[in-house]
Amino acid sequence: MLTPFDDYPIHQTPLPIAHPATGDPNHYDRFWFNGYTEDFYFAAGMAMYPNRGIIDGAFAVVQDGVQRSVFASGRIPENRGETRIGPLTIEVVEPLRVTRVRADAADLGIDADVTFTARTVALEEPRQTMTPGTRTIMDSTRLTQWGTWNGRIVAGGTELPIDRVYGTKDRSWGVRGVGEPETGGAPRAPGGIFFLWAPLVWDDHITHAIFFDGPRGEALVREGITAPLYTNEADVPDALEGTDERMAGAAHRVQYHPGTRLAAHAEIDLTDLAGRTRTIELAPELRFHMKGLGYIHPEWGQGRWKGELEIGGESFDPATLPLLAIENLHVQQVVRARDGERTGIGVLEQIVIGPYAPAGFTGLLDGA
Fold first, then answer.
1. Could you tell me if 147 and 169 are in contact, meaning their C-beta atoms sit under 8 angstroms apart?
2. Residues 42-74 as b or e (16 or more Cβ within 10 Å = b)
3. Distance (Å, rounded) from C-alpha 288 to C-alpha 48?
4. Does domain 28-177+191-359 correspond to CATH entry 2.40.370.10?
5. Percent of the chain scored above 70 by pLDDT?
6. In 3D, which of 295, 294, 281 has the Cα closest to residue 346?
7. Residues 6+ apart with CB under 8 A from 212
8. Which residues lie below 8 Å from residue 101, measured CB to CB, with a gap of 6+?
9. pTM for the complete prediction?
């Protein structure tokens, strides 16, 4: 099947662009964004699953003790450039520079029109490949970029001040568990995951740390990065390579709230090529549950067929959630970062399912 993108010299296989190179049903291509201050947090996501024939998305806001979400799901458009579903639209105004995100859902409690402007180059994270046993369950690439938001968000009748609000852009694609579980074949033991993701903003630079660990704490993916933060979008260079510094090593230490798997405090060590270690302390201030964008959501889980077009919303108080329920384990927390006298702000994303020896977790969902 041909689409307008086939007129561009961007093909990676002999197939038209609409056809993924793999027939794996878990192939996906996702937009993801967040924006935050000490007082509120918002996030947006949209993804296409070509082998499932689905597009879905969500927009969510946390403010004044309430998390609100708008969800939409439906049939994938033939033209992959139509990045909209229901009330949700993502428009790439200028690639790797400017993106506009809209959620026209005042009837569901969110009316948003915000624009992300890059203040760093886009950074390619290390390829993330997980192959427990003989099957590859994850094989994806992610680019991460820091910037500022401007525009308008009204949530629950309250307008938020969106004026050069810091945020992160995340574009990932590849294979990752989405949609309804596959059936058939020999039964497999339940899997687990440990993931930390910490994009931080400082006065004149950003730091980033990515961790996937195995159940004994062994490093599966472990990377630290620093890069310049530019004052204006016009100052961001066109060159994508050579502007960042990759660390020789990265390590993490997490303290959990008693009886939970939620980080109460964390430290990240970034060790540069000269052997100097920088320790960053992270103090959480505001919590967002990733189910607000469909991650492990019992009803709006990503990549699930819900019909030609379904739209919905929900709201809840994060403080009242049972934190060991599996759908509530995946979170991002707005954090204050400190490195000696320097301070920064950012998010700490985490999910821990299954045994994890460094924290003393021995079961699927036991707490600290």
1. yes
2. bbbbbbbbbbbebbbbbbbbbbeeebbbbbbbb
3. 23
4. yes
5. 100
6. 281
7. 128, 130, 193, 194, 195, 219, 220, 221, 222
8. 33, 44, 59, 89, 90, 91, 112, 113, 114, 115, 116
9. 0.95
* Residue with tokens 């964008």, as numbered in its chain: 293
- What digits encode the pLDDT tens for the residues 311-345? 999 999 999 999 999 999 999 999 999 999 899 99
Residues 102-160 have pLDDT tens digits of: 999 999 999 999 999 999 999 998 888 877 777 777 788 899 999 999 999 999 999 99
What is the separation of C-alpha 72 from the centre of its chain, rounded to a whole number of angstroms?
A: 18
Angle ∠(89,91,95) on CA atoms, nearest 5: 155
The amino acid present at 238, given as its one-letter code, is D
Other CB atoms within 10 Å distance of the CB of residue 239: 8
Q: What does the domain layout of the chain look like in residue ranges?
A: 28-177+191-359
What's the token pair of residue 145?
Answer: 């970029």
CA distance 246 to 248: 7
